[in-house]
Amino acid sequence: MAAVTRGSFSVLRRLLSQQYRRRGFRLQNFRSERTLQPFASTCDRNLQMFSSRTLHTAVVSRGPIVQFKLSDIGEGIMEVTVKEWYVKEGDKVSQFDSICEVQSDKASVTITSRYDGVIRKLYYDVDATALVGKPLVDIETESSSEVIQEEDVVETPAMAREEHTHQEIKGHKTQATPAVRRLAMENNIKLSEVVGTGKDGRILKEDILNFLAKQTGAILPPTPFQEIQTPGPAPAPAAAATRPVSTPAAIKPPPTTPKPVFTGKDITEPLKGFHKAMVKTMTAALKIPHFGYCDEVDLSRLVALRAELRSVAEGRGVKLSYMPFFIKAASLSLLHFPILNAAVDEGCQNITYKASHNIGLAMDTSQGLLVPNVKNVQLLSVFEIAQELNRLQALGFAGQLGTTDLTGGTFTLSNIGSIGGTYTKPVILPPEVAIGALGKIQILPRFDAGGQVVPAHIMNVSWSADHRVIDGATMCRFSNLWREYLENPAGMVLDLK
Fold it and tell me: What backbone phi and psi angles, to 5 degrees, belong to 79?
């Protein structure tokens, strides 16, 4: 009996200690031998009542459970497919922590937490369809007033597009600490216009300062390059000890070809995600009367120029391919033929000449064919285009291209030669009016100016244009000018701004 009473008293003492500690008191030590007997008769009766009260207090102190709803991610998207959960029930999350990845028919979007708390319920399984405006997860939050106020903000459709949400709205991630937000607000900078270099696209203080420097023309001290680098040969031990070693993120290699699997039975599954988008886009595209034009380009001088600049670019942390030259040459040529950088409406009653050269690059990814675009190529140098391509390729391989990266294109190039083949018949992406497909570069015999046979780096190009608004002569002149820039790359220097 004494052992049982002593055990009950120990439990009571621990509970009292917790209660007094919360209220700022300290329970004094005392001997159980002297005080146990007077309380032995009442201890067992009070213990159950006190435990229930303590349990009730613990339940009341828990934060409210909030239904975290899927906000509008733009472009009229009403439903998405849940591709992967990064949390499970019972996990603790903080603001900006990734919750899940969803995929629409336009892009993949990573949903991040708006609250600090504990995940209590997941509303969808993997590959299930989630609806915009419906609950995604239940989060037991750590506060009450702020949570309720912010939940009301989520309910308002207009506010779902504001800058200070924590989801990727139209591809713009606005993940930033309060200090960074305050710095942006003090300088009248919209976070959606700033490219974040932190983890998961988080905007850092340095990103705000760099953006501000570009706007004002100020010169900031150099910072280490964080762009994607191509891993080079391992340095010798002595050299490694004398030089600082940077560890940038590496580009993930393309997915390997899976081994064939023979199931022995037919499998039927619905088209969804990017495949569903391709059905819609290509159905509309094939209503356009296409015409094709093909030519070949001698890239011998460009090959030599790129060989000289490749090590310089890699020294700055950027992989330099031929594609930035192709894109910049296209932009310079579009300045002379703006009708190729235009868009027509569905009824082909109006044509809009686009001021920005948002040149898309057809990209083969594990999720299928995607066409991200480089924005405002007319304002970018070849090196800046290479930087942006590195970023888009890394996101494409990771399946994390945002809606902004995949929309707004005005002209497209498809580098089919990176896989193989010399000619193709590219299909126009409406509402654009032209597209080009680049074949692989081959070393072939050609005659030089003196009539001698020499090896030349030859690439074939195939153009498709909307014959409702583009005639063959315009396409031919554009192609000739584009080819001239590439065959004599020094000529581009005269027209660069």
Answer: -150, 150
CB 175 within 8 A of CB 184: no
- 8 A C-beta contact, residue 108 and residue 83: yes
Considering 116, 200, 467, 495, which one is annotated as catalytic?
467
Q: Give the distance, in angstroms, between the CA of residue 185 and the centroid of all CA atoms in the same chain.
A: 24
For 266, residues 6+ apart whose C-beta sits below 8 A from its C-beta are none
Q: Which 3 state secondary structure label does DSSP give 235?
A: coil
The SS3 of residue 473 is helix
Q: Residue 200: which region, alpha, beta or left (left: phi > 0; alpha: psi -120 to 50)?
A: left
Annotated catalytic, 471? yes
pLDDT classification of 178: cutoffs 50, 70, 90: low
Q: Which helix (H) or strand (E) holds 495?
A: helix 490-495
CB count within 10 Å of CB 369 equals 15
Give the pair of three-digit tokens for residue 217: 């023309």
Contact 409, 106 (CB under 8 A): no
| Residue whose token pair is 């209590």 | 120
DSSP state of 163: T
Residue 350 has pLDDT above 60, yes or no: yes
**Is 91 noted as a catalytic residue in this protein?**
no
d(CA 473, CA 479): 10
What integer pLDDT is reported at residue 348 of this predicted model? 85
Top pLDDT among 475 and 9 is at 475
Whether residue 425 contacts residue 464, with contact meaning beta carbons closer than 8 Å, is answered with yes
Average pLDDT on 400-417 reads 88
Judged by DSSP in three states, 340 sits in helix
Q: How far is CA 298 from CA 65, 277, 303, 450, in A?
A: 65, 36, 10, 16
The H-assigned helical ranges of 77-144 are: none
Task: Give the DSSP letter string of 379-447.
Answer: G--HHHHHHHHHHHHHHHHHT---HHHHS---EEEE-GGGTS-S-------TTB-EEEEEEEEEEEEEE
**In terms of DSSP bridges, do strands 65-69 and 98-103 run parallel, antiparallel, or are they unpaired?**
unpaired
Higher pLDDT: 302 or 226? It is 302
The number of residues in the chain equals 497
Q: State yes or no: cis peptide before 431, omega within 30 of 0.
A: yes
Q: How confident is the model at residue 254 (pLDDT cuts 50, 70, 90)?
A: low
Nearest to 105 by CA among 274, 269, 283, 281: 274
Res. 94: pLDDT tops 50: yes
